[in-house]
Design a protein that fits this description.
The complex is a heterotetramer of chains A (119), B (296), C (407) and D (149). Chain A is an alpha+beta fold and 119 residues long. Chain A contains 3 helices and 5 strands, in the order αβαββαββ. The N and C termini of chain A lie far apart (77 Å). Chain C folds into 2 domains: 6-56 and 354-406, no CATH class; 60-340, Cytochrome-c3 Hydrogenase, chain B, CATH 1.10.645.10. Classes of the chains: A alpha+beta (119), B mainly alpha (296), C mainly alpha (407), D alpha/beta (149). The structure holds iron/sulfur cluster (8 copies). Residues 340, 345 of chain C line the site of one iron/sulfur cluster.
């Protein structure tokens, strides 16, 4: 019965609930929300794929295709680090958005090809 | 007469207001837990959804699996018709408080029998607990109801209701009986600390484990109506009665608020603790009964 | 677990005749994860329990032998989502022991900080679950509401609420910037106030006491006999805590003490955790105070392939001691990983003792009070697949390995 | 005509009263605790009418997390069968969507959509509770389309 004061106070207090779908929550700066890949910076070396713990990234080094499956990603930002410190290209960054629910599995996959060099 | 039985304050009104009351309970509880909570008409939506859902028939179900929920709801509805709501009793005959007690008890019994008929181990354990709990709460319930009955010298809750309007609140005259009555409301509707028969964490959903769709909706509705009936009976017997809608609403909502507090504040009792607790309050209510017998 | 011998089968038959059994799990509201207890009941009294684990067995140790050291950090983290931090940190520590390297001071503080934040979140989670199991939703709601502040801090520090991915071989991956420290201290103050409230609540609330005191007794001698670890052991009066016994990271330099309760029952187990929350808050404050004065280096360079040796690392997870053993073979993949987790011992050995002769209604609180979580119970145990040989590791050998552990 | 109005009402009620069942099938239970967090004051699923029922027969929406282990597979199928129509399945976390980090472990028989039809995928490891809520709201839209009137 020790909860009674707290409970009665709460009736008149504003609820703690975030009004989520209407009001988007604040996210911290460093949130690891999603892998964002810059197809222009990338050199398609395949190192990120090698160190990805779950095999979410696959790189075809010959054909220069970078494929990312968000449905398998762990959002660990290992690839970001590899690209930044080992390859020194910074082609991968972690975006801060987190609402990725999809109805089709195929929509979770991103495929990037090396763009044709412009004349 | 037909209008009174079917629409107001009969079946339709009874069903709707019970659901709204339950919705208010859920909303209040959510606010006490510092959440926004569902809208107060949520139980209506739940009910419609459940009716629209598929009914699964478990293989091992015994006879009466379908029947018991409907019997349960019918009996509490009849009990509802015998209860004075805002000074009106749709059905009324002599000795109706005894009939009322029987119908309420039978409503609970039918729910528990439904658990047995489902043959699910969780259902059986839940029903067994329910029956043990019934042994516990019927005693304080009956004793506490007897107090105003004996005091008023009449068996009709309607008349006790009107009598109180003239003579003052029985709840103050017989506080012990009023407390015992309140405890038995919680126990009868399985509101914490008495939600042992349907204890989520131990036995999934207790007696209603095997039920789906319409039959589940009936079981849930039985509870809601029981809650409303018990609250309005409490208003009629102990809280000064009510002759018009406004006093009735105010008084019953206050009672509902207290019920919600109990729901939010306490942990679940074990079955042996329930027996001790309810019988203790039964004995306490006996004090009042003795007082009535001796002094009146 | 029930064996296959004849006598035991006969006993089982006998049991089945007298009683009825109730399957608790694998899909059951009592726990978040899937696990199965077969409870034999006589009326409402529990006669015997079968703990049937393995529903969550994924084969992690074998998996780790196929991944390289860097990938394994994240595999280790995903042994469990509740103490994910401790798993990855013990793994990293173990690999650093293989290499025999030390990590920068700042990294040590950050690791300690994340581990204590994790202990906070895990203990809050536990308190909430206890409230939920005794049918007191409100306690669950309040505690989890306050737990959100811890989750916010973790998200702010690491970028994810559950799997922090903080450590890496040779240090940590993220620095803690100075400007978030004041807000963290503020949250800690708030949490301390709330914990004081919960301490009084769990100590004095009549209904909680009625459900938890004297329930699920685990005598001290059984704790010692079965080598039960962590808060469960501490609640039975056994003073063990890896943080104190073999200090790692910064625990040796910080000011804190081991919480021991004598109650041996569910309430004591709850109280141990409540009091440990205060300890964690104090450790966190000390870390946060120290952080700005340290230099910014958070990582040392490590080679990706490790020459053939072996090492162990021990740390105190929120639920008891966690041991990692690794054997390297000169490549960038471990030859063998072995993980010994606290919950395994605590669940398998203590549950049957505590549950016997208790009421069915007390089952949830008893099970909850040892804070069971089955993810790490169901890892894998596998004998070296490649060579097929089976090494016996004796105690002195383990000690020798242990001495090589860096502080 | 009355039938259609009735159907519309039922459909509306369904969308407003999703009772959920959460089942962890062998992940790291990170997703499990985040799903649990959805019930708590900050996220409060009850404002959408949701209740955690933990009993497949009472639920409408199955929230499944974790890569499906071999031992649990049959159980999972049973849970799915025990859920009365109409129902929806949400796969929460990388594990459930594609086995995630356990994709080549030997004791895993997932991913989830090999075992039951999945309506909404919520990637993340674990997804934030907000993302799980978003998945739930999406699943309700799926419903409206699938049982459309
Ligand atoms: S490591 Fe960086 S540069 Fe190399 S393939 Fe990956 S993203 Fe491209
Ligand atoms: S974040 Fe981690 S799991 Fe996801 S693609 Fe990058 S390395 Fe792979
Ligand atoms: S770790 Fe091995 S030796 Fe120790 S208790 Fe467990 S099984 Fe027995
Ligand atoms: S002890 Fe529990 S919380 Fe910790 S890793 Fe094991 S399963 Fe997870
Ligand atoms: S000992 Fe290993 S194989 Fe056996 S049940 Fe436990 S985790 Fe599974
Ligand atoms: S050591 Fe491993 S294989 Fe041997 S009995 Fe124990 S769990 Fe089984
Ligand atoms: S074989 Fe012995 S030392 Fe190795 S894991 Fe099993 S019990 Fe432990
Ligand atoms: S998706 Fe990630 S957090 Fe969720 S259960 Fe799997 S490993 Fe754990």
């Amino acid at each position: 019965m020790r909860l009674i004061g707290e409970a009665l106070k709460n009736v008149f207090r504003k609820p703690f609930t975030q009004k989520y779908p209407k009001v988007k929550p604040l996210v911290p700066e460093g949130l690891r929300g999603r892998v964002e890949h810059d197809k222009n910076k990338c050199i398609y070396c395949g190192l990120c794929a090698k160190y990805c713990p779950s095999g979410a990234i696959e790189v075809d080094v010959k054909k220069k295709i970078w494929r990312y499956d968000m449905g398998r990603c762990l959002f660990c930002s290992q690839c970001e680090e590899v690209c930044k410190y080992m390859v020194r290209k910074n082609a991968i960054t972690m975006a801060r958005d987190f609402e990725h629910a999809e109805r089709k599995k195929s929509r979770l996959i991103t495929i990037h090809r090396k763009p044709k060099p412009e004349k | 007469m037909i209008f009174e039985i079917l629409i107001y304050p009969g079946f339709v009104f009874l069903v709707l207001i019970s659901m709204i009351y339950y919705g208010i309970l859920r909303k209040l509880a959510a606010r006490m837990q510092s959440r926004i909570g569902p809208p107060i008409w949520q139980p209506i939506l739940d009910f419609i959804k459940l009716v629209g859902k598929e009914d699964l028939n478990p293989e091992q179900a015994k006879a009466g699996f379908t029947l018991w929920p409907f019997i349960a709801i019918t009996s509490v509805l009849i009990a509802g018709l015998l209860t004075p709501i805002a000074g009106i009793v749709p059905l009324s005959f002599t000795g109706d408080i005894v009939v009322l007690i029987y119908f309420l008890a039978f409503g609970s019994l039918a729910v528990y029998l439904s658990g047995f008929s489902s043959s699910n181990p969780f259902g059986v354990v839940g029903s067994m607990r329910g029956l043990i709990q019934m042994i516990g709460y019927e005693f304080p319930f009956i004793v506490s109801i007897l107090v105003p009955v004996v005091a008023a010298g009449m068996l009709s809750p309607f008349l006790i209701n009107t009598l109180q309007i003239h003579y003052g609140w029985f709840g103050f005259v017989f506080p012990f009986a009023a407390i015992a009555y309140f405890i038995s409301i919680l126990a009868k509707v399985e509101i914490p600390p008495f939600h042992t028969p349907g204890a989520h964490q131990e036995i999934v959903s207790g007696y209603s484990t095997e039920y789906t769709g319409t039959r589940l909706a009936m079981i849930e509705l039985t509870h809601m109506i029981k809650l409303f009936v018990l609250i309005s009976l409490g208003v009629a017997l102990f809280f000064g009665g009510s002759a018009d809608m406004v006093t009735f609403l105010v008084k019953s909502l206050v009672l509902l608020f207290v019920v919600t507090l109990a729901r939010v504040l306490v942990a679940r009792f074990r079955i042996d603790q329930i027996l001790k607790f309810t019988w203790f309050f039964g004995l306490v209510a006996l004090i009042d009964l003795v007082r009535v017998m001796v002094f009146i | 677990m029930r064996g296959e011998s004849k006598e035991e089968k006969a006993k089982e038959k006998e049991l089945e005749r007298q009683t009825y059994s109730l399957p608790v799990g694998p899909q059951h509201p009592m726990y978040i994860e899937a696990e199965n207890l077969n409870v034999y009941l006589d009326g409402e009294t529990i006669v015997d329990v079968d703990v049937n684990v393995g529903y969550l067995h994924r084969g992690i140790e074998e998996l780790m032998q196929r991944r390289n050291y860097l990938q394994n950090i994240f595999v280790a983290e995903r042994i469990c989502g509740i103490c994910s931090g401790i798993h990855s940190m013990t793994y990293c520590q173990c690999v650093e022991n293989l290499l025999g390297i030390d990590i920068p001071e700042r990294a040590k503080y950050i690791r300690t900080l994340v581990l204590e934040l994790e202990r906070l979140h895990s203990h809050f989670l536990f308190l909430g679950v206890v409230g939920y199991e005794i049918g007191m939703d409100t306690v669950f709601m309040y505690v989890w509401k306050d737990r959100e502040h811890v989750m916010d801090m973790l998200e702010q520090v690491s970028g994810n609420r559950v799997n922090y991915a903080m450590p890496t071989m040779g240090g940590v991956r993220r620095d803690i910037p100075n400007h978030i420290i004041p807000s963290m201290l503020e949250k800690l103050n708030h949490l301390e106030k709330r914990t004081e409230y919960y301490r009084k609540l769990f100590l004095r609330d009549r209904t909680i006491i009625a459900r938890s005191r004297g329930v699920g007794i685990l005598p001290k001698k059984d704790v010692e006999r079965l080598s039960i670890v962590g808060p469960v052991a501490r609640a039975s009066g056994v003073r063990i805590d890896v943080r104190m016994d073999f200090p790692y990271l910064k625990y040796g330099d910080l000011d804190w003490k081991v919480i021991v309760e004598k109650g041996e029952d569910s309430q004591a187990r709850v109280m141990v955790k409540v009091l440990e929350i205060f300890q964690s808050i104090s450790i966190l404050r000390q870390c946060l105070k120290k952080l700005p004065s340290l230099d910014r280096e958070i990582k040392t360079k490590v080679p990706l392939a490790i020459p053939k040796t072996e090492a162990i690392a021990i740390m105190e997870a929120p639920r008891g001691e966690l041991v990692y053993y690794a054997m390297s073979n000169g490549t960038d993949r471990p030859e063998r990983m072995r993980i010994r987790t606290p919950s395994f011992v605590n669940i398998i050995y203590s549950l049957p003792i505590m549950l016997k002769e208790q009421q069915l209604a007390d089952l949830p609180i008893i099970v909850a009070s040892i804070d069971p979580c089955f993810s790490c119970t169901d890892r894998m145990t596998l004998i070296d697949t490649k060579s097929g040989e089976r090494k016996t590791v004796d105690e002195t050998y383990l000690k020798r390995l242990g001495e090589r552990r860096s502080r | 005509m009355f039938r259609r109005i009735g159907d519309k009402i039922v459909c509306y009620a369904r969308r407003k009263s999703p009772w959920i069942l959460h089942f962890d099938t062998g992940g790291c239970n990170g997703c499990a605790i985040e799903t649990f967090a959805v019930l708590t004051p900050r996220y409060d699923i009850e404002r959408f009418g949701g209740l955690s029922k933990a009993n497949p027969r009472h639920s409408d929406i199955l929230i499944i997390s974790g890569a499906v282990t071999k031992k649990i597979e049959s159980r999972l199928r049973r849970v799915y069968e025990q859920t009365p129509e109409p129902k929806a399945v949400i796969a929460v976390g990388s594990c459930a969507i594609s086995k995630g980090v356990f994709h080549d472990a030997y004791n895993i028989s997932g991913p989830l959509d090999r075992i039951m039809p999945v309506d909404v995928y919520v990637p993340g490891c674990p997804p934030k509770p907000e993302a799980i809520l978003q998945g739930l709201l999406k699943a309700l839209d799926v419903w409206r389309e699938r049982y459309k009137i």
